[in-house]
Design a protein that fits this description.
alpha+beta, three-stranded antiparallel beta sheet, 3 strands, single chain
């Protein structure tokens, strides 16, 4: 596991804005059982580690190229 102190901790709306998707899309992919977005649960709050290797790898798996 990555050390959370090395990366910026952001919330769902911030992640959605940076990825230019709706916040509802981020919420959906945090609850998907198959392969959810790597996140931290702090009680009722969900946070993400911006620029973490886990988040980058998750996003990379979704790239579709030729």
């Amino acid at each position: 596991m990555t050390d959370p102190q090395q990366f910026e901790v952001i919330d769902g709306p911030t992640l959605a804005a940076r990825w230019k998707v709706p916040a509802s899309w981020v919420r959906k992919y945090c609850t998907s059982v198959d392969d959810c977005i790597p996140h931290l649960k702090m009680g009722r709050y969900t946070r993400f580690l911006w620029n973490s290797p886990e988040l980058a790898e998750w996003l990379q798996r979704r790239f579709r190229g030729k």
